[in-house]
Amino acid sequence: GGSLTKLAYYSTVQHKVARVRSFDHSGKDIENEPLYEITVQEEITARLHFIKFENTYIETCLDFIKDHLVNTETKVIKATGGGAYKFKDLIEKKLGLKVDKEDVMTCLIKGCNFVLRNIPHEVFAYQKDSDTEFRFQTNDPNIFPYLLVNIGSGVSIVKVETEDKFEWIGGSSIGGGTFWGLGALLTKTKKFDELLQLASKGQHTNVDMLVKDVYGGAYQTLGLSGNLIASSFGKSTTADKEFSKEDMAKSLLHMISNDIGQLACLYAKLHNLEKIYFGGFFIRGHPVTMRTITYSINFFSKGEVQALFLRHEGYLGAIGAFLKGAEQDNPNQYSWGENYAGSSGLMSTSPDVYPMQRTRSGTFDMLEMDRLERPLVNLPLLKDPSTYIPDTVDLTDDAMARKYWLTCFEEALDGVAKRAAASQPDSMDALERAEKFRQKYWNKLQTLRQQPFAYGTLTVRSLLDTREHCLNEFNFPDPYSKIKQKENGIALKCFHSVIESLDSLDWEERQFALVKGLLAGNVFDWGAKAVSDVLESEPQFGFEEAKSKLQERPWLQDSYNQWLERLKEGPPHKCALIFADNSGIDIILGVFPFVRELLSRGTEVILACNSGPALNDVTYSESLIVTERIAAMDPIIQSALKEEKLLLVQTGSSSPCLDLSRLDKGLAVLVRERKTDLVIIEGMGRAIHTNYYAAFKCESLKLAVIKNSWLADRLGGKIFSVIFKYEVPCQ
């Protein structure tokens, strides 16, 4: 680009993963053996890296490429943007490679499609005067069609209809270069950023002629307010005085932004498009230009169209050029996820708020994306995927909640680091790595205190996911693996007696006992401090003790009577999809008896567990072993497995929360095939922090025990209050 070089490259990352597998128990006494074997293996995964360098450090950038990214097989380097011409000879000479220039607009759109599809909180609207400058949008699964307004030296307006179909529909020669050029002539300031800084301090009304200057007030016949600009620079024709550089820069900024805004609105209306994304160096995260463009779009569309910006706008061209070069590997067939541990996040570049921290090398921004093992899609049962928001509380917006949860995660950090180190007693450097993890996550939390919007909307889910990413970066793939192994073994020994006791009850008593068991199981959550303190100090704390902790009915949210009525009066459900939460007592003594009852009613069950570890949540591979052992004890489970009426699937997630817009494709296919008509979500992370307000096309059951007193208080209850939400969609 004109002032920045953006570099995109692919690497393979070697990291540790925890694997579980059944012991061969043939002919052995298995009473005192662990339930399964845990091994830690090396796994190679793919990662995309994106780095920005200032062009003044182009030599440093090329040294980095030469030292780390070029091997003997590399013959060509893909390049796009103005620098692909300007630095072509330098790149070819220094790297000994042929520069293959790619079309700028094609790359830009490829990059744009890629981030829209893979980064949930990519798009934001800018609101200068609200508490949170950045208002992130929910990801509409249908990203097309949209209008891309690229404001570089001039303005290009492109209509994008599909992955490969786009057309340039218009533009203007009055763009970023005009602001820069005229600004330099007016203020003698040659640097773009300095010009913007002048504009941010200026008062355009000193230079511009307003409607009230012409008509003495508002022009009511046409509905024009008195403060509207009637003529940019209009006062300079009559005023006999010098204007300040700041005021002239501000007037110029308004003039060009208003022109671009009106143009964009007209094209959007002409082509019937609702989404307008703005990019190019004129925007580049500058609050001043985002504010003026937003105002202009809002004014000319009468509030019907919103100006939208992209968190990684500066990388679009580089991502597109990379994707062009990697076409034979088809990166688009995979889903990718932002790795919070290695990404620097969106900074407010407002000069007064956070001075940009740049290192000596001129790199000041990084984005890392990990290739996910499986493609992710929407849950087909969501009522409206385009309006689905996973998270219950937006911490970017709610300052009180933000302060509480950031402090909560800070206070828990030492314990998490200790647990991580203790999970690898045979490793020489576990303590050192745990300390590095602690430091890294602490720094992330401090960034988020200052800039809560850094990674999109800040939520409890994003705080938990960032912590998991940081643990993985320092090779702690599953700090709770030994705890889960032990708890699964203990719970399995109680399974038979729990089932016997349930079977001895009459039907109505049994339904209540099953729900109570499900809730009691949900108490066993090492992610909740109130519980982990009890579990560490009282090793004998078990299923019955957990039942006694539960709130008595009526519960905080209580639609149990409606659920019971549905079971009594209605036909059996065709198929239930259950999202499981914790290992041990939760899945074995809470979820499985409930599953068994559904199967007995003639309902098929899809049991969905996390693909990867997070806290003490049960993983798919652990659930396979647990189910096999339960089937050996229970004929109902055994025959359901055999007849494929009980199916175990993975969610595609490694989070203690649940985003139903990014689920394993195989799960979505199965849900459709089996005509699923009941969704059951259990646990605080999946049913309260996320999905509390999620609406489905079918019946749903959300149940959890609140194990955090602040959250309980927020919802109007006490610790160990119960949420039991049975919902039927409106016909």
Number of helices: 24
Radius of gyration: 29 Å
Low-confidence stretches: 348-363
CATH first level of the largest domain:
Alpha Beta
CATH superfamily of the largest domain: Uncharacterised protein PF01937, DUF89, domain 3
Helix content: 40-55%
CATH architecture verdict of the largest domain: 3-Layer(aba) Sandwich
Rough outline = globular
Query: How many strand segments?
Result: 24
Order of the strands making up the biggest sheet: 6-5-13-12-7-8-9
In CATH, the topology of the largest domain is named Rossmann fold
Mean pLDDT: 91
Domain Damage-control phosphatase ARMT1-like metal-binding: 408-717
GO cellular component, one term: cytosol
Subunit structure: Homodimer. Interacts with PKM.
Protein name: 4'-phosphopantetheine phosphatase
Would you give an account of this structure?
- One of its GO terms (biological process) is coenzyme A biosynthetic process.
- Homodimer. Interacts with PKM.
- With 731 residues, this protein is of the alpha/beta class.
- It folds into three domains: 4-118 and 317-373, 2-Layer Sandwich (Nucleotidyltransferase, domain 5), CATH 3.30.420; 123-207 and 243-310, ATPase, nucleotide binding domain (Nucleotidyltransferase, domain 5); 480-727, Rossmann fold (3-Layer(aba) Sandwich).
- It contains 24 helices and 24 strands.
- The strands form six sheets. It has a seven-stranded mixed sheet, covered by helices on one side. A seven-stranded mixed sheet has the order 17-24-23-22-18-19-20, with helices on both faces. A four-stranded antiparallel sheet has the order 1-2-15-14.
- Helix 5 runs antiparallel to helix 8, helix 11 (399-422) packs antiparallel against helix 12 and helix 12 packs antiparallel against helix 13 (460-473).
- The longest helix has 26 residues, at 245-270.
- It is globular and about 95 Å long.
- The chain starts with a strand and ends with a strand.
